[in-house]
Write a structure and sequence with these properties.
The chain has 11 helices and 10 strands. By secondary structure, the protein is of the alpha/beta class.
Length: 255
């Protein structure tokens, strides 16, 4: 699967930090929305175009500095078909600028995200669809979201399934089917448990700093990617990226 291309992109730029696009309007600069509501009125088109402008500006500044971008589908799809068009546009823009593209859709069926109009390099799925959700082309990657930060999720994910928690059992099942695994956790113990159970599985970590992410990496700084959700809101994005990359290099050296 295309985890090889992802790892090559990480090695080329010598950093395992990924940009996240999960734009929440209340955290964006007011000008992003005002410019378009003045033009179109307060309608889905204005909100979608604000997300397009924000995303395109952010990707342009991150290209060449970061190996990958993860686009959370939800804020785009909330704007209907216009939002879907924006998501597709941003995926193609990022690919054209050399970034590996991951759509965080948490879906059951991968076809709409890995083919057709979106055509991302990778898509996240929820693990309970089993091996069928991992049946994609060799040039694509499925990433199973096994650990989430949703309120109340731990009451299910921490249930015991034999000798391990449900999130670990789900990760093992999906890894056997060829998927990578994603965890939204800042706790190194969770990451240590995932790496112990999933020795050769690529891990995508969200909401995690370098110190806590460290157990996911091998001695060459390979095997994982850390998705940074705060960079998208930086006033000076190039400087914020440089700072994030430098902080990660103090902990993890990509060889």
């Amino acid at each position: 699967m295309s985890v090889v291309r992802l790892q090559e992109s990480i090695c080329r730029l010598k950093t395992p930090v990924a940009l996240v696009l999960d734009p929440r309007e209340e955290r964006l600069h007011p000008k992003f929305l005002k410019n378009f509501t003045d033009m179109y009125g307060d309608c889905p088109m204005a909100h979608a175009e604000a997300l397009r402008f924000h995303g395109s500006q952010t990707i342009s500044r991150a290209a060449g500095k970061l190996p990958a971008v993860m686009l959370r589908a939800e804020p785009y799809l909330a704007q209907g078909f216009m939002g879907m068009d924006v998501l597709s546009n941003l995926v193609h823009m990022a690919k054209n600028q050399g970034m590996y593209t991951i759509v965080d859709a948490r879906c059951a069926g991968t076809e709409p995200w890995l083919r057709g109009g979106i055509n991302a390099d990778a898509v996240t799925v929820l693990p309970y669809g089993g091996a069928e959700s991992c049946r994609v082309g060799e040039d694509k990657l499925v990433i199973a979201v096994v650990r989430t930060r949703d309120a109340g999720a731990a009451s299910v994910e921490n249930l015991m399934a034999g000798d391990r928690q449900v999130f670990l059992a789900a990760g093992e099942q999906m890894a056997r089917a060829g998927a990578a695994c994603m965890a939204e956790t800042g706790y190194s113990l969770d990451i240590r448990d995932l790496r112990r159970r999933l020795k050769d599985t690529f891990l995508l970590l969200s909401g995690c700093d370098g110190d806590n992410a460290y157990p996911a990496f091998d001695e060459y700084g390979r095997g994982a990617l850390v998705a940074d959700g705060e960079l998208q809101y930086a006033d000076d994005l190039p400087a914020a990226i440089d700072e994030a990359v430098a902080a990660m290099k103090k902990v993890i050296q990509v060889l």
